[in-house]
Design a protein that fits this description.
Chain lengths: 212, 181
Amino acid sequence: MAHASVVVRAPVSSEPQRDALKDLDDSSVVAAFLAGEKRAFTELAERYQTRLLNFVYRTTGDRERAEDLVQETFIRVYRHLHRFDQSKKFSTWVYTIASNLAKNELRNRSRNPLVLFQAIKKNWDSDQRPLEWEDNTYRPDDLYRKRHLKQIVDAAVKDLPEHHRAVFVLREMEGKSYEEIAEITGCNLGTVKSRLNRARNNFAQRIAPLLD
Amino acid sequence: MLNCSDFLEGYSDFRDGLLPAARYREFERHAETCDACARYHRVIGGGVEAFRSLPDVEPSEDFEWRLRHRLLLLEEEQQRQASGSGASAAVTIGIALAIGASAWLPALRARQAVVRLPPVVALAPAERSVIGNPFPSAPPLPAPTLLLPAPRFIDEPLLPPVSRPGDLHLYTTLSTYPSTR
């Protein structure tokens, strides 16, 4: 195929230009790409690929699929960047695309009626049950805690209902503001606050036995 | 006075520093005096810290290569579409010009034939009638009016009409369909 031979790296002489792009903020890199600087897109991809991969992986729980979805995110960015409103934050836009793809992925997975029923029940329970906190007196020893804490934390986040999980990951891992989370997830601020509070409560219940 | 339920309800605002100063101090005071809520605060803090310290998932080695490859295919497709649409527009214009030319060509080439016709003779109409009756021997037709009785429809297939003036005959034909037997 002709395509295999055309994947080439930028020539060495362009490295200073790449370095110059690294110093620019996102909006300037976007502007450079729209002005015809093709390397600017590579710069954007390098900036966001790991962050997006982690976000999508934490949201979907599937490493391989997460990589495919991040690739698809970049393809969509490349296709539609000329339509991006440059007065807004590029990172919010790119996270919105990735979040929608992750949401679709989870929706497709829940096409099975049993899975769908379980997901709806889990979501309903998590949204409706009163917030509660029981002071568990059990304290694990240090060795056990160190060995298992990360595993339990990872499992606790994966076990959150998906609409809580996305909000929790965006806030706690990505450090997004409530407004950004609202834009990315397409919810209003009140819903974001409520979901985040419930996600934290749920998370705390699960990991409490391992923490002092 | 803040109770534990209020603390849980407003915890996210407290943790994210979204409370007004006075309300924030109430939350702090409650956490200082209530062991359960203090622990809740510690557990979430510690849990989030552990969550953030989870190792990052790194893109696979061929991630960038695959992305470049897909972008290249996309670019090629876009270029093909752009050149394809340009070529098809040119072809469309060419076809339109050809059709236009073929329609106009005979008109431009053909010489007009000159035909001599016999002279037309017109007779002056009769003096009494402006329009004139085309059948002068037939009795004059009654003028159509809505005041006359409605015409009758007589269903008399294949019979000679026995009619009264003003009857309207409707003839029907019975078709014989070929037998399917």
